[in-house]
Amino acid sequence: MSTIQIIYASTSGHTEYVVRVLEEFLRGQNVGCTLQRAEATKPEELLREDLLILASGTWNTGGIEGQMNPHMHDLLQDRAKGVNLAGKPVAIVALGDDRYFYTCRAGEHMRRFVLDHGGKILGDALLIVNEPYGQEERVKKWGGKIMKELPRKNA
Q: In order of start, what are the domains of the chain with their CATH numbers?
């Protein structure tokens, strides 16, 4: 069985809600899945499972609109800046609010990290705009697409 590591940054709870819906769906499909908060993640843990999913809301930190959650920023731009993803498949979940010009731009920052560190982007990013509640079917549908892209292991 292939395994998925979901590393997420959530402060208001929206991103955590989305990844928990995704985790429940994946487990229901017999996919091994672990969740880990970005602030508790060591750089080497980005390499732990067969597939990595990075998830973050979009923030307006430092007066600059369209940034990653500060915990994800700290992980990817500071603690893990020397990580070599070595072709690891990575999927992205980005949340945002349509009141801002750079809706879901955190996804672009995570994508840039993956590409700059030798990873492989898997499929299209899941973009959740505004409240995630009521968007569970979108999350599950995206999870189904990601499952089809999972690296195959020999039994």
A: 3-149 (3.40.50.360)
Distance CA 47, CA 55 (A): 16
On the CB side of 97, how many CA atoms lie within 13 Å of its CA? 12
Q: Which residues pair with 68 in a beta bridge?
A: 58
pTM over 0.70: yes
* Angle (nearest 5°) at CA 123 between 152 and 131: 120
- Strands of the chain (E only): list them: 3-9, 32-37, 51-59, 67-68, 89-96, 120-121, 126-129
**Residues linked to residue 124 through DSSP beta bridges, in sequence order:** none
Q: Tell me how far apart the alpha carbons of residues 135 and 137 are, in angstroms, rounded to a whole number.
A: 6
| Lowest mean per-residue pLDDT among 32-46, 56-70, 140-154 | 56-70
User: Does residue 81 have a pLDDT over 50?
Assistant: yes
Range with lowest mean pLDDT among 5-14, 62-71, 115-124, 130-139: 62-71
SS3 assignment, position 121: strand
